[in-house]
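Figure S4 source data
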Amino acid sequence: MILIFNATSVTGIKYLDSITIPMKEYSILIIFNLIGLLFLPLTNDLISLFVIVELQSYSFYLITAFNNESYYSSRAGLTYFLIGGLASIIILFGCASLYSATGLTSFDGLFSLLYHDNFSPNLNVGFSSMILGLIIKIGTAPMHNWLINIYSIVPTYVTAWVSLMGKISILTLIFNLKLKLGVESVVTDIVALTSALSMLIGSIGGLFHFKNKTFCL
């Protein structure tokens, strides 16, 4: 992670110097993004989960569209914002479903209730919606095409930062939830399905891309 941060930061600084964009705003966005990256895997509440996910997401939107003089950066930032906003709505729907079904916001309370309630339909809908929104955020298969289009038109340092840093924290959170919910939950089925599709589509579909960035991702 430290190597990724150093490499993308140095590359980003050189790029920003070449297009005369001030470093102060760029540094603030990186700091906000790192705060989300560090705190998201540690969250233990639905409210803090949504707030931290949005903190990280909005910094990604602005980093993607940082060079607002470029048509491609503006287009990528707007696309990222629209799809990310849709994913946020789905996450919020999942959190609201969990709260309406249980009256709880803490994960500890939800997990203890699950062991006694044996995964009622309302809880399954809530957790499934939340995981689906997080999967859209990180662009795993089968919700990956929109993110590949963004990767292909933004600068390389933005592609490296968004494609790696954006996935680390959310994937860590998803797998923590998967371990706590157990093997019989619908979350396990969703994670298994999207993992299998990502490996299959990533290994075969990449052969039909001719740009280096989309081929590697």
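Figure S5 source data
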Amino acid sequence: MKIVIVGDFLAQIYEQAFYNAFLKLGHNVSKFAIGDYFKSKQFYYRFQNKFLCGPVVWKINKDLIACIEMEKQNLVFIYRGNLIFAETIKQIKKSGATIFGYNNDDPFSKKQIGEEMAPFLFGITNPIVQSYYIKQLAKLLDVSEESISRVVRMYRKKRFVRSDIAKISAQKPLRETVIQQYLLEQLLHASTLDQHISEVQPIISEDNFTIPSYGKLFIKLKERALTKGVFDINTFIKSLPPELASVADELYLKASSDEQGAANSLKHIAYEIKRYSLRTVLKNLLSHDPEAHEEKLKGLQAQLKELEKMSSTV
């Protein structure tokens, strides 16, 4: 496959890492180095690079179109692409090339890029070489190596499922679990963590999470919310013990902005989590000598009724 990678090419761990990986897989890879157009430190060049306009930017787009038309690449891999015009993309599409865009600053594309790269990483048969590129991709995406390895393992499982075996439909996760995941995902993506925590902390506690690691992660998020300053996800994950870091990585990559409950406020989700938790406690008490816990049952039922009333006002 003929591939051209469009990007600055100013650091080894960014565009160059993809370039090396594609080469290792035997593809015909070339570079379109935008950084070469801005080697001069003069204000004239720095101004155009910052404000994304001017003769140099127009030349970049013109040269890129000419490059694609001449070389006939199958895949145009655009890294960041803030200097590439929408009209340029339209012109490239007319050549029949597939266009893939990736922005390193967009957290919602991390899972996508990991899944897109999984077949290439899986295709590297040498475990040492494969480990090297997993490490490079992890650095590139600012996630743990384990989260990249997990994506590759998932791809491997999907690849080797025989089509003649009866298809087993994946069981949908319980709503109770989905909303807990959603709440934690939104907290991990919050730049103002303290404000988000202040919304949900009066409603729920770590005991209301059905999965222990979720409860522990919620505690760590509450502790971090006490610290002043902008919440940085990378620093936070590095501060976690390994078992929680992998959970946080997975939830952060999942970034399920379209999951159930996405249209609801965090406060509404917190009320729902609390409601599920109280119902579970009630169910357990009712199944074990309810007469001995009559007063406790009445108290829980009163809490549940009050919770329903409060959640309806959100």
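The first strand starts at residue 2 and ends at 7. The radius of gyration is 25 Å.
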